[in-house]
Amino acid sequence: MKENRYINPTTDFGFKRIFGQEANKDILIAFLNSLLPEKHQIADLSFFNTEQNPPRQDVYAAILDLHCVTPSGERFIVEMQRKSEAYFVDRSLYYTASAITNMVRRGGGIGPLPAVYFIGLMDFIPRGEGWNELIREVSLKDQYGAEVYEKLRMFYVLLPLFTKTEAELVAEKDKWLYFLNDLYNLENIPAILGMDPVFVKAFEVAEFANMSEAEQLAFFKSADDKATTKRMWDYDMKNAREEGMAQGINKTLLETAQKMKAAGIGPETIKAVTGLPGF
């Protein structure tokens, strides 16, 4: 099994490393602008608190993947959802409503509110009607289809429906969706993407060799595919060999199995990799 050169951007760690750092906000801006209509393009943004504090202690606190604000006050909530979830739309609506609620301070009254955008990147296809388009854009409209409120928009991107090859990449949106879907299996940056400095930077940030050991371990914990499982195994075996202790191998096997279980990896895969049953 070959080792991957780049991290998986659809994992929690991979997505936040590439798109969620202040030093890389130009990557996030380029990605969001590829999805947004011309009139909603972003010139600059700052990362905002990802925890939405509820008004009462008994209310669920929304923890967002990315929460950004532009200089003029528009909010952008970006969520990467890798596993199928029945109530993802419900959660996205709650997150968006929480962001709106936190804009209004007690005693100040409600005046014009900044626009709020939710971008949900879904690595699965939900059940039900309407989920057959690559990008589903939602806004508040009346019974005649006329838009009632333009400052609340939600974009759902179904990554499994993107099937274009490298030769078919023309639009910026397609390039970014290809990046998200195929980065983990690429050995080098494709020529069509290598002409853009933002993509070059994104590939450099995503390169496994450019990560510290602590970052590599964090990536292992956030991933659950077989290639990453092998890297987790190799990583721990290397440490055990360096210690030169036979008992260290047994301990490492157990620790690896525990990490895999915590990452949501199934018991059959854990047994196949570590040889340890009962997980």
How many beta-strand runs? 8
SSE string, helices as H and strands as E = HHEEEEEHEEEHHHHHHH
What is the residue-averaged pLDDT?
81
In which order are the strands of the major sheet placed? 1-4-5-6-8-7
Rg, alpha carbons: 21 Å
What is the topology?
Blueprint: H1 12-19, H2 25-35, E1 46-47, E2 51-52, E3 62-63, E4 66-69, E5 75-81, H3 88-101, E6 116-122, E7 135-141, E8 147-158, H4 172-182, H5 191-194, H6 197-206, H7 213-222, H8 226-243, H9 246-262, H10 267-274
Parallel strand pairs: 5-6, 6-8
Antiparallel strand pairs: 1-4, 2-3, 4-5, 7-8
Can you offer a commentary on this structure?
This protein is 40% helix and 15% strand. α2 crosses α4 and α8 (226-243) runs antiparallel to α9 (246-262). The protein is α/β, with parallel strands linked by helices. The chain has 2 domains: 12-210, no CATH class; 224-274, no CATH class. The strands form 2 sheets. Strands 1-4-5-6-8-7 form a 6-stranded mixed sheet. It has a two-stranded antiparallel sheet with strand order 2-3.
